[in-house]
Design a protein that fits this description.
Organism: Adiantum capillus-veneris (Maidenhair fern)
Shape: globular
Order of helices and strands: HEEEHEEHHEEEEHHHHHEHEE
Oligomer: single chain
GO molecular function: ATP binding; protein kinase activity
Strand content: 5-15%
CATH architecture of the largest domain: Orthogonal Bundle
Pfam family, one: PK_Tyr_Ser-Thr
Protein name: Protein kinase domain-containing protein
Helix content: 25-40%
Length: 398
């Protein structure tokens, strides 16, 4: 999967472009402050070449600090809703200045020496989860990595809900999840988060209004907001991670991924639920189905019957231990004959119109243990109504 590369043209010399050292004086103890002019230079006047994400109110650019640390630069869209975006950025700064964690997109610094507030956030080299799931040019994420990402987001939400002043994210979705090294996930997008005092159960006063794209059926108003709203949104995210479908996609029927996925989960049809770009999860099918069932419990219409994020994180931790990450080896993948027969049965039709880059389509080989395997060429096409494969990378193999 292609990550969000830091532009090599960004020099960190004080005589050239780069974000200069922080100014720590002022009203933000512990949070480094940067001059907007230096941020402006580091992004080459917010040049579109360094733009990595666009949202309704915000843009995210990539830059470097003088110590070679890559960062995300988050600024408001100039326009009619500029001041709404500024209020949201101030809310995000307030939230992130009070919490920090390994699975959060932590605050690195802030630029507030002008009326335009800009945030500097941790960099995630793997890019955005939404792009990784839905961009056809990105290599599909393997099942162990998907479970790992889901577990990390659950741990992040667990920490927010257990904080001294409970934090409700309110905007848990794939575009707010960023992928770091070793498929570690970081949760961002705190513009609309709310902080609650546990003693009085009152929320932060200046939190901007958020019209939730995924509506919790048990959510009435901000006054009744609770952590279980995040649990519901996380359940939607789990289904999106498993299926590769967007949470709401008018090109599918039904458009809401929950309405489409829940009947399949109840019927244990895990193969129909899984991302069609992926190889069917034969060895991991039970783990994927268990993850889908966790998502189904999170989606209970009654918030009181949903699990806590602590329970969800524990279940996903056990699943991630059962399906550990593995190193993908370069070169031709040797498949076990049983798996190859399962693939034929899964797609429901014989290989009649297969095109390969090598003269021999299938070659029987002897593996180190003496067990017979099947080696597949580097490119092929299935004569199947289920899937067309032009490159083994799209099928989950190298």
């Amino acid at each position: 999967m292609g990550g969000a590369a830091v532009p090599s043209t960004l020099s960190l010399s004080r005589r050239n472009h780069g974000v200069h050292g922080p100014r720590r004086e002022g009203s933000l103890p512990g949070i480094p402050r940067f001059k907007l002019h230096h941020v402006y230079l580091a992004t080459y006047a917010f040049d579109s070449r360094f733009l990595i994400a666009n949202a309704t109110l915000f843009q995210i650019f990539v830059a470097k600090l003088l110590n070679e640390t890559p960062v995300f630069v988050k600024r408001s869209w100039p326009g009619d809703r500029f001041w709404d975006a500024q209020l949201a950025l101030e809310n995000e700064r307030s939230i992130l200045s009070s919490c920090k964690g390994p699975y959060l997109l932590n605050l690195v610094g802030v630029s507030d020496d002008t009326p335009e507030r800009v945030l500097l956030l941790e960099h995630a080299a793997g890019g955005n989860l939404s792009d990784a799931l839905h961009n056809e040019y990105c290599k599909p994420i393997e099942w162990p990595a998907r479970i790992r990402i889901a577990h990390h987001v659950a741990v992040a939400l667990q920490g927010l809900h257990r904080a001294r002043s409970q934090i409700v994210h309110r905007d848990v979705k794939s575009s707010n999840v960023w992928i770091a090294d070793q498929w570690s996930a970081k949760l961002g997008g705190f513009e609309f988060a709310m902080k609650f005092s546990r003693s009085s159960q009152t929320s932060s006063a200046k939190c901007p209004h958020k019209a939730m794209a995924v509506k919790d059926p048990d959510y009435q108003a901000a006054e009744h907001l609770c952590a279980k709203t995040d649990v519901f949104c996380f359940g939607v995210l789990l289904l999106e991670i498993i299926s590769g479908r967007k949470a709401i996609d008018v090109n599918h029927h039904p458009p809401f991924v929950v309405d489409w996925a829940l009947p399949l989960i109840l019927q244990n049809k895990v193969n129909l639920l899984c991302d069609p770009r992926m190889r069917p999860p034969f060895q991991n099918s039970k783990a994927v189905l268990d993850m889908a069932r966790v998502g189904m419990r999170c989606l209970n219409s009654l918030s009181s019957r949903r699990p806590t994020m602590a329970d969800v994180a524990e279940e996903l931790k056990m699943l991630s231990l059962k399906v550990p990450l593995f190193e993908q080896k370069s070169g031709k993948k040797v498949l076990d004959c049983k798996d190859f027969l399962k693939i034929l049965l899964y797609y429901g039709s014989p290989m009649m119109d297969m095109r390969v880059n090598t003269p021999s389509m299938l070659q029987k080989t002897q593996k180190g243990s003496g067990r017979q395997g099947v080696s597949v060429g580097s490119g092929m096409r299935w004569n199947s109504r289920m899937l067309t494969v032009l490159n083994l990378e799209h099928f989950g193999w190298e």
